[in-house]
Amino acid sequence: MSQVMALIGLGNPGPKYAATRHNAGAWLVDAVARDMHTELRPEKKFFGLHAKTRLGGVELHLLNPTTFMNRSGASVAALCQFFKLSPDQLLVAHDELDLPAGQARYKTGGGHGGHNGLRDTVSALGNRKDFHRLRIGIGHPGDANRVVNYVLNRPGKTEQSAIDTALDACLTTLPLAVGGDWAQAMNRLHSLK
């Protein structure tokens, strides 16, 4: 398994979307930057906010695309091209409708599951799906027709608290994942209730 060299948080740009469910991936990258006392700065060539830090003994690029969600791939591909990263060196954090708020899961490869940010990322990476994912549960509204409105709105207080708890758990397991100990990272994160 290749060494993770970049953590990318999917979301939509700007204050209108900052606190919405669809930005759960970006919240994680923001939290890592805060914990590591580093600042995500606008980087035009990556169409996003970028920082470099060390986590789990590894030099790690942090990136929050500032394209809209359905154009995330342009940002991811630009970072990969500039630093000569392959898709299997990426860990992409994103919101996940199929997990309840309060849960998060690591996954490697797979389809996009209807997630427009993942769909565009897969396309921009030449249809390679072998990047790592960190799926952050936001729950499902119960009706497919309500999904767009649901992901583009803020979670309620109880739900936000559950998501924050999951993000904290992600932060504790990220050094293991980035350091290459996927089994232990998965075991720890997936055993949390």
Give structural notes:
This protein starts with 5 loop residues before the first strand and ends with a helix. A hairpin with a 4-residue loop joins strand 2 (41-43) and strand 3 (48-55). The protein has a 7-stranded mixed beta sheet with strand order 2-3-4-1-5-7-6, sandwiched between helices. The chain contains 6 helices and 7 strands; from the N terminus they run E-H-E-E-E-H-E-E-H-E-H-H-H. It has helices spanning 24-35, 72-83, 116-124, 147-151, 157-178, 182-191; strands spanning 6-9, 41-43, 48-55, 58-65, 90-96, 104-108, 132-137.
Attribute tags:
193 residues; Rossmann fold; seven-stranded mixed β-sheet
Structural topology:
Blueprint: E1 6-9, H1 24-35, E2 41-43, E3 48-55, E4 58-65, H2 72-83, E5 90-96, E6 104-108, H3 116-124, E7 132-137, H4 147-151, H5 157-178, H6 182-191
Parallel strand pairs: 1-4, 1-5, 5-7
Antiparallel strand pairs: 2-3, 3-4, 6-7
